[in-house]
Design a protein that fits this description.
It contains 16 helices and 4 strands. The protein is mainly α. The strands form 2 sheets. Strands 1-2 form a two-stranded antiparallel ribbon. A two-stranded antiparallel sheet has the order 3-4. A hairpin with a 5-residue loop joins β1 and β2. InterPro entries: PRONE_dom (IPR005512), RopGEF (IPR038937). Keywords: Guanine-nucleotide releasing factor. This is Rho guanine nucleotide exchange factor 8-like.
Length: about 475
């Protein structure tokens, strides 16, 4: 036992951890090809897969609101630290002041962790801690409990029809107490802030990844071919309303929504490439003016943004999958995969909290239960929300007066981002009819490094589920 009273881990455990670390990094160095045949994947993709697989094995499905098993928690923190330690050696030169012995000051260049990693890795670690602490808050006796699906009918609780594989939730006959509702709503608000931040980081990293040549070569020559005549006409009309476009589109299944997302992203890439194309004789040439093409591209981005907000449970698109698989930047790979798994866990935890609030709502008013239920974030897209869920959303308290959100915890401000999102969604025409577009588009993939704070207008983007 050590001097401070803590138990010293046995030598066998220390050796075991060292061997485990050697095994993990040997697989990364060989690109997951332990045969040594040289058929492994890139280091970036190997690290991305390692973080994804670790999260899947540690967190699993997270079927209940309960603290993590201590052994799984220790394993997660330990192995994540190993994988994130790679970013300590991704550096860049920055100017610094050095003072010599005679008192003179001179400017020199020193190495520092790359700016995007320096800002976002600590932020992701805080989000990680916040999520695990949220689960730990559900230890001890709770007013609700989980009942197996195989239990007697009298013992069964409430569960949504689209979550038949989860245990049912049993709440007191008179419903949850006011204090319990406030506690659940406070936890939901905190997890929602974690979800927003991780989605923003993930979206920013993906936007900075280069578009692979293989994806570009698979694209048609123009946006009309990608979208189809009907959708192309809907986007290029004189007076454009993105909400009406989505109402007219067939969004009856996850497959159709994902197909629309793929088409919209492909058309955006095509139009952006045409706007930066310099060779008039290229096959990318077109009779459509740059101003109109830029307007079409902005309209398509608005549709894409609304799709990501309205259907947060979508799998990754073809463009995103292609970027992740062909990415060679180890820093981007770690940021993308770490933010993605945190996004997935935050989404699942918030969904479990909503399940309890939904059960409480039905207990208070059973007549609200109807078959048509909004699929939650970890299920396929479908109808908006049932009347029962509308009711508990209206009745749910906004949190205790002294509650501290993630914004307070980390010093963030999401108000500006929310205002930007409302401004984007409220505009029917992206540009006024008589306003000439003079701004030029940015490059498709920028190398400039930003943190999530530079791009918080993307707070409604990513799909946390169905991506592992």
């Amino acid at each position: 036992m050590s001097k401070n009273g803590n138990k010293t881990p046995p030598p066998e455990r220390q050796i075991s951890d060292l061997d485990l670390m050697k095994d993990r990094f040997s697989k990364l160095l060989l690109g997951e090809d332990m045969s040594g045949g040289g058929k492994g994947v890139s280091s970036a993709l190997a690290l991305s897969n390692a973080i994804t697989n670790l999260a899947a094995s540690v967190f699993g499905e997270q079927r209940k609101l309960e603290p993590m098993d201590p052994e799984r928690k220790v394993r997660w923190k330990k192995e994540v630290d190993w994988l994130l330690s790679v970013t300590d050696y991704i550096v860049e030169f920055v100017p610094s002041q050095q003072k010599s012995k005679d008192g003179t000051t001179m400017e020199i260049m020193i190495t520092q962790q790359r700016r995007d990693l320096l800002m976002n890795i600590p932020a992701l670690r805080k989000l990680d801690t916040m999520l695990i602490d949220c689960l730990d808050n559900f230890k001890g006796p709770n007013e609700f409990r989980y009942v197996s699906k195989d239990a007697d009918e009298s013992e069964k609780g409430v569960q949504r029809d689209d979550k038949w594989w989860l245990p049912t939730i049993k709440v007191p006959p008179e419903g949850l107490s006011e204090a319990s509702r406030k506690f659940l709503q406070y936890q939901k608000d905190c997890v929602n802030q974690v979800l927003k931040a991780s989605m923003a980081i993930n979206a920013q990293v993906l936007s900075e990844m280069d578009i692979p040549e293989s994806y570009i070569e698979s694209l048609p020559k123009n946006g009309r071919s990608s979208l189809g005549d009907q959708m192309y006409k809907s986007i290029t009309v004189e007076y454009f309303d993105p909400d009406q476009f989505l109402i007219a589109a067939d969004l009856s299944s996850e497959h159709k929504v994902l197909d629309l997302k793929n088409k919209i992203e492909a058309s955006i890439v095509i139009w952006k490439r045409k706007m930066v194309q310099k060779d008039a004789k290229s096959t990318w040439g077109s009779a459509v003016s740059l101003e109109k093409r830029e307007l079409f591209e902005e309209r398509a981005e608005t549709i894409l943004l609304l799709l990501k907000q309205r259907f947060p449970g979508l799998p990754q698109s073809s463009l995103e999958i292609s970027k992740i698989q062909c990415n060679r930047d180890v820093g981007f790979a770690i940021l993308e995969s770490y933010s993605r798994v945190l996004e997935s866990l935050a989404n699942t935890v918030m969904s479990r909290i909503e399940d309890v609030l939904y059960a409480d709502s039905l207990t208070q008013n059973p007549s609200l239960a109807i078959p048509k239920i909004k699929p939650v974030r970890d299920s396929s897209p479908g109808p908006r929300m049932s009347s029962a869920e509308d009711e508990f959303e209206r009745q749910s308290p906004v949190g205790s007066p002294n509650s501290m959100t993630l914004s307070d915890f980390m010093g963030w401000n999401f108000e500006g981002a929310d205002a930007d999102m409302k401004r984007i969604n409220s505009t029917g025409n992206i540009e006024k009819e008589n306003e000439k577009i003079t701004s030029k588009p940015a490059n498709i993939a920028t190398k400039k490094k930003f943190s999530y704070l530079d791009k918080l207008e993307w707070t409604g983007l990513r799909s946390p589920t169905s991506r592992h």
